[in-house]
């Protein structure tokens, strides 16, 4: 059986001369897609300095419409090509470039020198792992799922995707371990087997592939299971408490408040049969407002402050309006303070 495994691994690592590895070909197709994504990012607008990219034209249009609402808090869509390129060069360009280079080309054809071929393939596998770094960009997709799915459904979908992804990574590690052990077997691995047995018992999993056979082993196994039950309850009970303490109660309250608000708006739209175009505008406004204010009522906070302090805060909040419009440049500080107190944000008609 070991000989057959060895032959299969050799066939996978070194396909017959002139043949093409289908897996490597699929990886090359992914590289082409990644390269196309780089080209698209050079022409993709983003919201504000360091904001998130939006590759859909209708989303950009809606954000542009909403930009006028938040002029006093620097909410705008950057459409200048030079700024877009500069922002991309400073953020994801290097990672995207390294992850799309065709490292898997080493797998496609057989080399005459077997040792050199194996060395190049291992280097290609190591460099191909850079593609995993691009998964960090999936966080933006996860944050947008709440706009289209219920909170529970979105969370369930993300957890399932994360579970499948981790299972895939662990399967790759498991395959690599089997491939390595076919070529090399040491006494040290017997100790690893013993450690595997104790850890499976301590974690209360107990797969059973390594089991107690003699009477002494069974007695030791019973003792270890008792110890494992106590350790499991003590350690993981404290870990749960620590994790709950790490998550601030204020943050949890804001998250619950946000999802309740989104659920109420979505239910209102469904109940009142609001047209799709108007419903999208409502959702865009609600989500964008929350993104800028984090659910904090500015008027309520200003109500805690005395009149002079309230005027200073209002001038600060509206400083962009005062600095960019000529009608306010000659106004005195006292005039600006009085004007700032009475400034309000209004949504302009889209056809104005």
Automatic annotation (TrEMBL):
All residue ranges annotated as the Ion transport domain in the record: 18-249
Cross-referenced InterPro entries, in alphabetical order?
cNMP-bd_dom_sf (IPR018490), Ion_trans_dom (IPR005821), K_chnl_volt-dep_EAG (IPR003949), K_chnl_volt-dep_EAG/ELK/ERG (IPR003938), KCNH_animal-type (IPR050818), RmlC-like_jellyroll (IPR014710)
Q: Return one Gene Ontology term, BP aspect.
A: regulation of membrane potential
Which GO terms of the molecular function aspect are on file? voltage-gated potassium channel activity
Q: Which UniProt keywords apply?
A: Membrane, Phosphoprotein, Transmembrane, Transmembrane helix
Per the record, its GO cellular-component terms are:
voltage-gated potassium channel complex
Where does the record place it? Membrane
Keyword Chaperone on entry? no
Q: Which domain of life is it from?
A: Eukaryota
Membrane-crossing ranges are: 151-175, 187-207, 219-243
Entry keyword Repressor: no
For membrane topology, the record states: Multi-pass membrane protein
State what protein this is by name. Answer: Ion_trans domain-containing protein
| Provenance organism | Gongylonema pulchrum
């Amino acid at each position: 059986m070991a000989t057959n495994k060895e032959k299969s691994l050799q066939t996978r690592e070194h396909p017959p001369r002139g043949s093409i590895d289908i897996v490597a070909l699929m990886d090359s197709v992914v590289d082409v897609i990644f390269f196309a994504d780089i080209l698209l990012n050079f022409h993709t607008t983003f919201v504000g300095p360091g904001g998130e990219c939006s590759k859909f034209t209708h989303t950009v249009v809606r954000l542009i419409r909403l930009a006028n609402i938040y002029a006093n808090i620097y909410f705008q869509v950057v459409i200048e090509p030079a700024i877009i390129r500069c922002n991309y060069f400073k953020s994801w360009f290097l990672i995207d470039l390294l992850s799309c280079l065709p490292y898997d080309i080493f797998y496609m054809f057989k080399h005459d020198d077997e040792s050199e071929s194996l060395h190049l393939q291992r280097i290609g596998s190591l460099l191909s792992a850079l593609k995993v770094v691009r998964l960090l960009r999936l966080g933006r997709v996860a944050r947008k799922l709440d706009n289209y799915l219920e909170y529970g459904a979105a969370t369930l979908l993300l957890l399932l995707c994360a579970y499948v992804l981790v299972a895939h990574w662990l399967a790759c590690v498991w395959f690599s371990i089997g491939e390595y052990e076919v070529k090399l077997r040491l006494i040290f691995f017997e100790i690893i087997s013993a450690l595997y047995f104790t850890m499976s018992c301590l974690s209360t999993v107990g797969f059973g592939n390594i089991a107690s056979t003699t009477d002494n082993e069974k007695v030791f196994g019973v003792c270890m299971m008792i110890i494992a039950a106590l350790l499991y309850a003590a350690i993981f009970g404290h870990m749960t408490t620590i994790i709950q303490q790490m998550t601030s109660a204020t943050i949890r309250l804001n998250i619950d408040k946000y999802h309740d608000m989104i659920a109420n708006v979505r239910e209102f739209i469904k109940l009142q049969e609001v047209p799709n175009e108007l419903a999208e505008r409502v959702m865009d406004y609600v989500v964008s407002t929350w993104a800028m204010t984090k659910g904090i009522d500015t008027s309520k906070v200003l109500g805690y402050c005395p009149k002079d302090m309230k005027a200073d805060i209002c001038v600060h909040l509206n400083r962009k309006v005062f600095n960019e419009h000529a009608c306010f440049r000659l106004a005195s500080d006292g005039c600006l303070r009085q004007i700032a107190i009475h400034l309000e944000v209004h949504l302009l008609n889209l056809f104005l």
